[in-house]
Amino acid sequence: MTGSFLRSVLSQTSSGDAKGRDMDKKMSVNNEKSVMSELWNSMSKIGLMNNSNVVKCDAAPLPPSLPPPPGDSVEENDIAKAAAAVSPIGSPGPYEQATMDSKRLVSLDTADGARFDISKQLSPYMLVAHSFWLGTSMLPEGRNKTYTFVTQVATEDGKMLMARFDPEKRSLDGRLHYFPLGTRVQLSISPEGTNDQMLAELDLGSDQTTWAGNFKYGSMGGGIALGANYYQAITSRLAMGGEGMYLSANKSLMSNYTARYHFTPHDDPSNTDSSTIVGQWNPSQQMLSLNYKRTVTPGRVHVGAELQCNPLAPDQSQMALGAEFNLTRSKFNFCVGGDGRIQTVLEAKLGMAPGSPTLNFSANIHHATSDMKFGYGLNIGG
Predict the structure, then answer these.
(1) pLDDT at residue 18 above 50?
(2) Measured between alpha carbons, how far is 302 from 300 in angstroms, rounded to an integer?
(3) N- to C-terminal Cα distance for the chain?
(4) Distance, CA of 294 to CA of 300 (rounded, Å)
(5) Within a 10 A sphere around the Cβ of 223, how many other Cβ atoms?
(6) Which pTM value belongs to this model?
(7) Mean pLDDT to the nearest integer, 267-287
(8) Buried-state track 352-369, b at ≥16 Cβ within 10 A, e below 16
(9) Cα distance between residue 352 and residue 296, in whole Å
(10) Which phi-psi region, left, alpha or beta, contains residue 285 (left: φ > 0; alpha: ψ -120 to 50)?
């Protein structure tokens, strides 16, 4: 009896404990649901559980955030923008060529009589040329004809040698160029010896510099000759320079100063329509020269003007207007001076292949003095 009684008591106790545990589980679940419900309602009220902000558990993972861009200081950005806005200044070129491009439109190579230039390329490194000028009145010493023989030899290391021989005068002119060092040596010898000269030149500067210079030393007229020039690009449009030479034979000092201005940067690849003005002052002659060149059509039409004046004597002023027209196989130049002189030059290619002969006609007419000169020429192989 006692054992059965104990078993009944224990069974009732265990069943009561199980029911209690079930009640505790139900109460804890209900409490969790109520807490989650209150949290959901609170988050919804403050706008944290909108559809756009809800991330579902089964949704794809968000991509990783990109790192922030490197922080450039304001100063570095300003320097970069300023450097990009400033165009680089290129080399102004040799001082001797500062006025050539403008002067060629008003200084035409006119000649009377007949001129023939025949050149032949004997090898990739050697060239010979024969030059004839017949029936002319433009030679000194009353001569009306001349012949010169020219030969030119180049080497692979940058040397170039050129010689010109005049059989009638028995004179020899020679020139040696060494391009890597920018050196030149000129030599002129004649039987009389009065005009013999030797001059060595050294070019300074390069295409990467904003300046160019030149030194000269030698013998001219029986005395020492010493000269130098310097040409500086101030901006991409403006360049200025000067040149001086001293001759000990007559103790004379010659100098001139030049300023050149491009209305558009001359080293700009898009510079297809430009204008240039060049001013040059010669103190020894008290002469001021102004040259203007205008490109009307790139590669086709160019016009220019020149004014030479003495500020102390305005009545000695001279002016000239010129133009150049480039056609497919010909080129025409004309120039009109302030005194009424008219100069014209016509060049025509006689073929389309490179090296085709060139026929040219020239005229120099001054109606006021009845001075008229006409000539023609033929260039073969050049």
Answers:
(1) no
(2) 7
(3) 145
(4) 12
(5) 13
(6) 0.71
(7) 81
(8) eeeeeebebebbbeeeee
(9) 26
(10) alpha
